[in-house]
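Why should sequence recovery work at all? Because a backbone constrains its sequence more than one might expect. Tight turns favour small or flexible residues, buried strands favour hydrophobic ones, and helices have their own preferences. The token representation captures these environments compactly. In the example below, the structure is given first.
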């Protein structure tokens, strides 16, 4: 059996990490977001920021595209809170952080 050939292919992200080309997306906040985060209990706020940073680094997280009034935005779930944001090639812009019952109102 040849050892150089592998039946598994590597994803672009894995190849970039191996090539040491992985970059973290810049996280930007709308003017109202820092106040929204400060209003949340500290443990929950830190979990939200960790989830957001993880998504910026790896692209992994509980994210889905929104529709309707929020079309064009993405939603990140972090416990009982939702982060509404949009994403470009090199940046994430957070528009809202709120409890799930208030996030879409």
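From this structural description, the recovered sequence reads:
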């Amino acid at each position: 059996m040849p050892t150089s050939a592998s039946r598994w292919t590597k994803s672009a992200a894995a190849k970039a990490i191996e090539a040491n080309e992985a970059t973290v997306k810049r996280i930007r906040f709308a003017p109202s977001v820092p106040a929204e985060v400060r209003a949340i209990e500290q443990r929950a706020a830190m979990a939200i920021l960790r989830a957001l940073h993880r998504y910026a680094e790896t692209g992994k997280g509980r994210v889905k595209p929104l529709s309707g009034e929020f079309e064009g935005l993405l939603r990140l779930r972090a416990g009982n809170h939702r982060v509404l944001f949009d994403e470009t090639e090199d940046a994430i812009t957070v528009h809202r952080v709120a409890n799930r019952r208030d996030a879409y109102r």
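A few observations help interpret the result. DSSP finds three helices and five strands in the chain.
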